[in-house]
């Protein structure tokens, strides 16, 4: 078994340096800082090398106002955690239905993983109020990381 591992390591190290495995994460934030922190820390703790991770942080505004994603503390907190971990980050924003906008952005950036934050809701609450997280999970073939802040 050890010989096989050594051979595999030799094959990987022989790859040309310009061939890299890059992981694209789409991290979606609302205004909750604790959830944004949990999401960013989850991505920072992934097994991939930080140099091989790029994260797009997306905030979806439900109506067009004068606010920018740069003014959303949860988004800038997540950005700071990820950049401190050596992960490349872009901040992005859009206006519209959150589920639709997130799925469209995941397609646009060709996300390997979508990172969302779940809120604690009863099944009845999900039916009455809807669930962006549930909508994303049910509507995509991409892996979805669901994080929650410690209460």
UniProtKB/TrEMBL annotation:
It holds the Pfam family Usp. InterPro entries: Rossmann-like_a/b/a_fold, UspA. Signal peptide: none annotated. This is Universal stress protein. It comes from the Archaea. Residues 64-147 form the UspA domain.
């Amino acid at each position: 078994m050890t010989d096989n591992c050594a051979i595999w390591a030799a094959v990987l190290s022989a790859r040309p340096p310009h061939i890299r495995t890059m992981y694209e994460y789409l991290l979606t934030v609302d205004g909750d800082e604790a959830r944004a922190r949990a999401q960013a820390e989850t991505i920072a703790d992934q097994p991939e090398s930080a140099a091989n991770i790029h994260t797009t942080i997306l905030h979806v505004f439900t109506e067009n106002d004068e606010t920018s994603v740069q003014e959303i503390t949860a988004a800038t907190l997540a950005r700071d955690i990820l950049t401190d971990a050596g992960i490349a980050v872009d901040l992005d924003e859009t206006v519209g239905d959150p589920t639709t906008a997130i799925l469209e952005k995941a397609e646009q950036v060709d996300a390997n993983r979508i990172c969302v934050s779940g809120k604690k809701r009863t099944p009845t609450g999900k039916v009455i109020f809807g669930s962006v997280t549930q909508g994303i999970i049910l509507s995509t073939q991409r892996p979805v990381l669901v994080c929650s802040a410690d209460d």
